[in-house]
Amino acid sequence: MKKEIIQTADAPAAIGPYSQAIKVNGVLYSSGQIAINPNSGLLEIDDIDLETKRVMLNLKAVLKAAGLEFSDVVKVSIFLKNMDDFDRVNQVYATFFTENYPARETVQVAKLPRDVNVEISIVAFAA
C-alpha cells in the first residue's frame, strides 16, 4: 500500500497538522476545504454563493494535483453552519458536476474552522 501526500499551492495550505489530501491505492481522501483564497490567504465568506464556489475551486485544485477531476469524485461531505443555506450551496455545488453524481451527506454543525459557513471534503477514485 502506497500512501501519497497531495499538496498544491493552488489550494490553501493546511491550517493545522494535516495534509490537503492523501492518495492511497488510487483513492483520494481530501481534508475539508473552506473558502480561503490560496493567492491572498484571505477568507471569502461575505456571500454563501461565492463562499461555496471558492471551496469548490479549492477542491478542484486538490483534485488536479492528484491527477483527478470532479467526475472521479465518489463521496462528498458538506458541513453547513446554517441549513437554511442548503439550497444556495446546492445550486453552486451542482455546477461542478454534470452527471453520475457522487454519494453525499449534508449536515448542519455548531461551528466550523475560522467561523466559515461551509466546509466540504471529498473522496475520489480514478478507475
UniProtKB/TrEMBL annotation:
One of its GO terms (molecular function) is deaminase activity. Belongs to the RutC family. InterPro entries: RidA, RutC-like_sf, YjgF/YER057c/UK114. CDD domains: YjgF_YER057c_UK114_family. It holds the Pfam family Ribonuc_L-PSP. This is RidA family protein. PANTHER family: 2-IMINOBUTANOATE/2-IMINOPROPANOATE DEAMINASE RIDA, PROTEIN HMF1-RELATED. The lineage of its organism: Bacteria, Pseudomonadati, Bacteroidota, Flavobacteriia, Flavobacteriales. GO terms for cellular component: cytosol.
